[in-house]
Amino acid sequence: MRSYSAALVANTMVFTAALYSFAGNAGVIVTPFIGYSFGGEAETAEGTSYDISPSANFALAVEFPFRNGRMGAFYSRQDSSLDTLNLDTTIQYLQFQSSAEYQIGEHTQAYIGAGLGASHTSGQWTKSHTGFAASIFGGVEYYLTKNLAINGQLRWQGTVVSNDSVSICNLPTDDQSCFIAFKTSWMNQVQTNLGLSVKF
């Protein structure tokens, strides 16, 4: 799991460097986020469902101005567990994204955008899997100064996951061979994020 995490972070850094080079003198906008993620469900062979517990996530967006909006990269990570079972779950996203901006006040602007990329899911109850991911997001920025803004964001994330069953032995059942997997091969999540955007 650590190797996949390191690979995603490394890819983010490489992609960010490429974006910075492409942006030239246009400037770079870096936004670290903290937030909360909801969504995801597992099911046993007997049909019992368990939700992935809503939990905190951290994220980072690195973007540059493009026309009336921005283009860039977005990375997020959620460490959670399955309800009741307390089996660890990690969900990571790395996406290329673009957005359009709309001025709604002297110091305030709204934005809406979309992203495409990949996710990596891993945990004690599921096979490690990297799959296609997409997102739609929107939010509001309030500028404290010319180069510093508070950024509130709502984001839908959808991704392909592995629903191959994994055998575990700590489910609440007398059967010593219990099988569990993602309920479907597509998972939807919602993120609420709050960040601080810095322009360089």
Notes on the protein architecture:
The two termini are 33 Å apart. The mean pLDDT is 86. With 200 residues, this protein is mainly β. It contains one helix and twelve strands; from the N terminus they run αββββββββββββ. The protein has a single domain, classed as Beta Barrel (Porin).
Which fold name is given in CATH as the topology? Porin
What is the number of independent domains?
1
Largest sheet properties: 8 strands, antiparallel, barrel
Total helical segments: 1
InterPro entries: OMP/PagP_B-barrel
Protein name: Outer membrane protein beta-barrel domain-containing protein
Defining key terms:
single chain; 200 residues; Porin; 63% strand; Outer membrane protein beta-barrel domain-containing protein; OMP/PagP_B-barrel
Summarize the structure.
The chain has one helix at 2-23; strands at residues 29-38, 41-44, 49-51, 55-66, 69-81, 88-103, 108-123, 129-145, 148-160, 166-168, 178-182, 186-199.
Which secondary structure elements does this structure contain, and how are they paired or packed?
Elements: H1 2-23, E1 29-38, E2 41-44, E3 49-51, E4 55-66, E5 69-81, E6 88-103, E7 108-123, E8 129-145, E9 148-160, E10 166-168, E11 178-182, E12 186-199
